[in-house]
Design goal:
By secondary structure, this protein is mostly helical. Helices cover 71% and strands 0% of the residues.
Length: 404
């Protein structure tokens, strides 16, 4: 892998490049079988967790075989170390996907244009969010990137879906040329950074200890995924320092206010509130998202602030609902995230995804391990979370009444 400087000139060039092998495949399918073949392939990808072997053209099967080969620089020890990190903190990582990683991509104005044109977050949000969470789990579960692991298959499918979206967007003749190529190399790299650099930053905000070796291993694992997804080698950072620099460059270059980003952020927050059980947790996704993304990104996406400390905890203290020693502990937010993330994962497994698609699933061994750790949590904190949820709703509705 190279060591690019991530200059504006270099990244401007990357905005003009898509994924040549996958894009050419889609063009060939269109030329040979007309647009019905492309549409049929897209439906197959959406409605099946894996590609049915007997229903695909030979050139598509050859493409899938060629991109299933891991890059020569793959380090399986690092991948196993990354899998272990996910084994320990998977629920928090999935919640960070919803409350930090995805908002990070929606704040990128030009990428948001392409994502919004798929229409799927607003027309079928359950499936869209479940698919993204499923990709994380397929990649990071033990064995996901070995042989014909689920992570390899899922990354192949996402790559083809990206190519299909590019083809459909360009065929519509409505794509603004100033945005470059839809879902281009810089957009793909920014999204990849959201799955690794942004997640690692979120774990740090939760005071979850991640060693330098574990962080580098986690980045390496996602670099391998980036390769399968069609990211060019020169866009894959070699170490965490380069990755952080790339994420910062993406943020500086691409973050800007737009209606599409706001729309997708709102749909994501509404979905979380909808699928979490009851109404105890309704406002916690908003509070957590605002906390992780920070004021500047929250303003870009119009994510309302629901403060934890001055507005929330002081009334709880005055009411003797929550003890001072819990607030002084650095682990209260981590405990809150673990409880909410497990509720979210349980709910996702119950959400119907329609069509022929199987339910969102977590490998049994992984799920059992997470549930055992959940069972050891203090029941008192559960009661506190219920109280927090009720107070958050009161504060939120009070702020709306005041503003009106």
């Amino acid at each position: 892998m190279a060591h690019p400087p991530w200059t504006n000139e270099f990244l401007d060039g990357m905005r003009l490049i898509g994924d040549d092998p996958a894009d050419q495949l889609i063009k060939d399918l269109f030329a040979t079988h007309q647009i019905g073949a492309v549409n049929s392939m897209m439906r197959t990808l959406v409605e099946n967790d894996r590609m049915p072997e007997g229903s695909i053209p030979e050139n598509l099967r050859n493409f899938l075989q060629s991109v299933a080969i891991l890059p020569p620089w793959t380090d399986m020890e690092k991948i196993r170390a990354a899998e272990n990190l996910f084994w320990l903190h998977g629920p928090a990582i999935v919640l960070l996907l919803f409350c930090y990683s995805l908002p990070f991509t929606y704040a990128a104005r030009e990428e948001a244009q392409a994502l919004a044109r798929t229409g799927r977050l607003t027309t079928d949000p359950n499936r869209r969010v479940a698919e993204t969470a499923q990709m994380i789990i397929d990649v990071m579960a033990p064995g996901g990137l070995t042989g014909s692991g689920a992570g390899v298959r899922t990354a192949q499918k996402v790559r083809l879906m990206h190519a299909g979206v590019r083809f459909q967007i360009l065929a519509s003749k409505q794509w603004p040329p100033q945005y470059g190529y839809p879902l281009n190399q810089e957009d793909l790299a920014g999204t990849l950074m959201s799955f690794c650099v942004i997640v690692l930053d979120g774990l740090s905000q939760l005071n979850i200890s991640v060693s330098e070796a574990e962080a580098e291993a986690y980045l390496h694992c996602w670099n391998v995924v980036g390769h399968i997804l069609g990211l060019k080698d020169e866009m894959i950072p070699e170490n965490l320092t380069e990755a952080v620099t790339l994420a910062k460059a993406f943020r500086v270059r691409q973050f800007a206010e737009c209606d599409e980003g706001k729309m997708m952020a709102k749909a994501l927050l509404d979905l979380q509130a909808h699928i979490l059980p009851g109404n105890v947790f309704d406002l916690i996704p908003r509070a957590l998202t605002h906390h992780f993304i920070g004021e500047k990104m929250a303003n870009i996406l119009e994510v309302p602030a629901v403060p934890f400390d001055d507005v929330l905890f002081r009334p709880l203290q005055r009411s003797n609902v929550i003890a001072d020693d819990i607030l002084k502990s650095s682990g209260w937010l981590k405990d809150l995230v673990e409880i909410v993330s497990m509720q979210l994962l349980e709910s996702l497994q119950l959400v119907a995804r329609g069509g022929k698609r199987t339910s969102f699933s977590i490998p049994k061994k992984l799920w059992r391990g997470w549930r055992r750790r959940k069972a050891r949590r203090n029941n008192f904190f559960r009661a506190v979370v219920r109280t927090i949820g009720a107070l958050l709703r009161q504060l939120f509705h009070r702020s709306i009444d005041t503003s009106n």
